Amino acid sequence: MGHGHPHTHDAAAPPDPGTLAARRKANLLLAAILLPVTVLTLVGMIALWPSGDRSGVTVVDPYATAPGVSFETGTVQRVETETCPSSQSAIDAGGEGQQCMVAYTEPTSGGTLQPVEITPEIAQSRGVEAGDTIRYLDLSRIMPDQPNTLIFVDFVRSVPMVLLAVLYAVVVVAVARWRGFRAILGLAGAFVVLAQFVLPGLVEGKPPLLLGLIGSVVIMVGVLYFAHGFSARTSTALLGTMFGLGVTALMAGWATDAAYLTGVGDEDTYQLVNMADTISLSGVIMCGLIISGLGVLNDVTITQSSAVWEMYELAPQASARRLFTGAMRVGRDHIASTVYTIAFAYAGAALPVLILVSLYERPLFDTLSSGELAEEIVRTLVGSIGLVLAIPMTTLIAVLVVKATGIRRASDVTVDVAGGEPAMVSSPPGHGTAVRYPGGDGAGASLPGGADDGGAPVPVPAGKPAEQPLSRRARRRAERD
């Protein structure tokens, strides 16, 4: 007996003319919204562009050295625990020398091995091993009575960091191919915006809320379109991202003041106070609250936009409510996983602070609301609020766009048949609805009226009764599940 070969819609097949027309219409609709917003953002960026004048900034370079002092690099050949070279003057005076870790290092510039004194904190944490490349401070010229005073400063990490960066780029391009390569270039462009616009603007005292919002929008416009291409899906995700950024900016502006985030508890931000009078530490924190959630926000909006478009192109007859409900199932899973992602990312980066604070004998709430933790907790909460609200908004925008544009094409759906394999229902425009069964001759009954006969029963051959449709209550229960 011959076997029928029903054809279903193949997501990998080239889109039909109806789908292409719908996508073009969606692009025009979204462009009418996004172009004015983008132009306004660029105008704001031009108005806030930093002048580059740093005459009022006094920078103390921590790597600057006094005359006669120099930074040197070398490779450790062996490590000993012995009398510290810096204790020689005390020994000569009849005192007792201290014991410390000494790394005998071959200078990169050449010469004999030099005894480099390792600081106690490095000796107690990781230590120094033979083969390590280190940077050390040479104080011999300004301390002639102690010719071997060489103090460890830091490790030279250039080689492993470059190798990791190259490996990361290779893995991304190998898996994501051209899109991954474009994403890496987009990331480089984002850092250019931060380095040339946001950071100098903060130094010159520009409005931090506008700097963070405008800079973030410019970054997202460039990154999304460059990495994902110009499409209705990308534009929908961009609109959702802008909404999330707006919510985050409003929450950041309120939370910075309401939670008394001053930034003076951090050593790096405290140094900024003495560098320039124009730098506002609370403004720096506010701008950081906006920028910190960009990556995750971009991730969820792209996912939601793609979910809606894929669902609609596979089932264009689905209602707007059904599309929204189905896509939000994906969104809720994403929300749940993202909450853990943000929280654990902070916990992993702040383990030393968490350990230190946990040793204090203070009530838990006092500890969480202290200056050491409050800023990071507020950053996590503000970013999460904008992220969570961006998911339903992106989903709603995507559903409205796909429904406003509409796809008018032939559709293939399946009908469950009791006691057999699913039947294939093919609905060419202007024709009846034909039913085909795998294993049969491909023939089937037809419905008069064409593809728009929504809700009409599909006739089936004798002996193969169609499965009864679910009741409204059963459908709601299935949607909840």
TrEMBL record:
InterPro entries assigned: YibE_F (IPR012507)
Transmembrane residue ranges: 28-49, 155-176, 183-203, 209-227, 236-255, 275-297, 338-360, 380-402
Stretches for region Disordered: 421-481
Assigned keywords, A-Z: Membrane, Transmembrane, Transmembrane helix
Biased composition (Low complexity): 444-466
Residue ranges with Basic residues bias: 472-481
Full protein name: YibE/F family protein
